[in-house]
Inverse folding.
């Protein structure tokens, strides 16, 4: 029998030690910022009941759920007429669980289930993988990590302000230049209302969300295809043509939406958020973008999306306000707002920009060369002292040729190699080689310890 060729499922990846060190740098940076703002971690299971997941992401999202076959004879209860007809209906009869699609819906389920243990407003962060049965392509995977931060149980727009500060601080720390785009679902509802098509808000926003990709004519063609009249479409034109800074755009928008109460409420919310940033310094540009229409199935207020300025990759962070996400689980009128950082895309951006700090590449700081059994016994207590003092250290496990040991140090980017032979043991010194500069010098162990600490 021929040996099986090893492979992983499409849209999933292995991560090498070097990749993991870089990924952990991203995760640790993001978590540190979350903690600074008082957010606490939770985790939820990889799988949820399908009843928890279905109907929360729209028809398209439902199709992208990975469903898990029931154990045992799962075909026993299947209606025979379905077997060759509708795979989606069949799946619901033989699957009760699915892999989570995002972290937000499981979070809403968690809040309702653990209501009596939670202090509101509840500020939580969650860094875990999610799964989508999507077509794999550049920047789009079937298994990927999300880094979510949400506050639930508060209507205050200070929460939106804080999330924007978190986004700013995360990308400053990662040295990635981004733009934070903002919109408000109430403004989109106002636009649909004033052009006389309030029932077509989803159609309108799906179309104008594609403005960058297909241009204005493409948007208008799509709107006609979705059943809007040419008269209604012409009224959208001034909205897509808004000019000036954020406050200029909002001022023009007030005139266009003057007869829409919900539209004016959305403008007021955005103005309030932007006014806070007149007094708080952030390094990232905030841009009002009326074509932004992500997550319409549950966003009700602010919509936020973050794009890298130097790499074409789509959104690397996004989120918004949801006024009743817990309602589907029986807890009404609990407002929340959150954003999700796409760690995999952030990684791809940082790789392209070569912006990972060089010092994170190696986890080992010191390698002791192995000259034999006597030298091993001499070096092991020194290694213990270094490790006890927080210096990542190792000894080569065999007394192999010097060239082999040095190649090992180079391949692992270890900055210092320690040579302890008979001569060094007699003199009570170490020979230290700086692998970056090539310099070699003798020093006492205590000196080395102070230098490395």
């Amino acid at each position: 029998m021929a040996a099986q060729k090893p492979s992983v499922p499409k849209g999933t990846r292995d991560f090498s030690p070097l990749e993991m060190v870089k990924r952990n740098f991203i995760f640790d940076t993001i978590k540190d910022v979350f903690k600074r703002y008082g957010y606490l971690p939770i985790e939820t299971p990889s799988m949820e009941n399908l009843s928890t997941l279905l109907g929360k992401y729209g028809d398209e999202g439902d199709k992208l759920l990975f469903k898990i076959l029931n154990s045992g004879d799962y075909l026993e209860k299947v209606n025979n007429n379905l077997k060759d007809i509708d795979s989606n209906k069949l799946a619901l009869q033989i699957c009760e669980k699915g892999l989570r699609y995002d972290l937000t819906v499981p979070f809403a389920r968690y809040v309702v289930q653990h209501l009596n243990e939670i202090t509101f407003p509840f500020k939580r962060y969650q860094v875990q993988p999610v799964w989508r049965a999507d077509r794999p392509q550049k920047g789009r995977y079937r298994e990927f990590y999300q880094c979510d931060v949400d506050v639930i149980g508060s209507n205050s727009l200070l929460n939106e302000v804080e999330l924007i500060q978190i986004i700013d601080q995360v990308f400053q720390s990662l040295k990635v230049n981004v733009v934070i785009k903002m919109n408000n679902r109430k403004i989109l509802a106002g636009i649909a209302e004033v052009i006389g098509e309030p029932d077509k808000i989803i159609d309108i926003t799906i179309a104008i969300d594609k403005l960058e990709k297909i241009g204005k004519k493409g948007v208008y063609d799509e709107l006609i295809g979705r059943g809007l009249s040419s008269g209604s479409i012409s009224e959208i034109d001034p909205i897509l043509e808004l000019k000036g800074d954020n406050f200029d755009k909002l001022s023009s928008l007030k005139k266009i939406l003057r007869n829409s109460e919900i539209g004016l409420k959305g403008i007021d919310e955005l103005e309030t958020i932007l006014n806070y940033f007149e007094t708080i310094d952030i390094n990232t540009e905030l841009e009002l973008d009326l074509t932004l229409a992500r997550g319409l199935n549950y966003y009700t207020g602010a919509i936020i999306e973050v794009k890298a300025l130097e790499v074409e990759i789509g959104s690397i962070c996004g989120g918004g306000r949801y006024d009743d996400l817990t309602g589907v689980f029986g807890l009404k009128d609990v407002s929340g707002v959150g954003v999700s950082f796409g760690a995999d895309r952030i990684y791809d951006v940082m790789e392209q920009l070569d912006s990972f700090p060089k010092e994170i590449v190696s986890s080992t700081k010191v390698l002791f060369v192995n000259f034999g059994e006597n030298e091993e016994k001499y070096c092991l207590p020194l290694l213990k002292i270094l490790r006890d003092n927080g210096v990542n250290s190792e000894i080569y496990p065999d007394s192999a040729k010097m060239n082999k040991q040095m190649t090992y140090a180079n391949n692992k980017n270890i900055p210092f190699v320690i040579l302890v032979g008979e001569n060094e043991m007699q003199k009570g010194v170490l020979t230290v080689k700086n692998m970056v500069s090539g310099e070699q010098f003798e020093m006492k162990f205590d000196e080395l310890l102070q230098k490395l600490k």
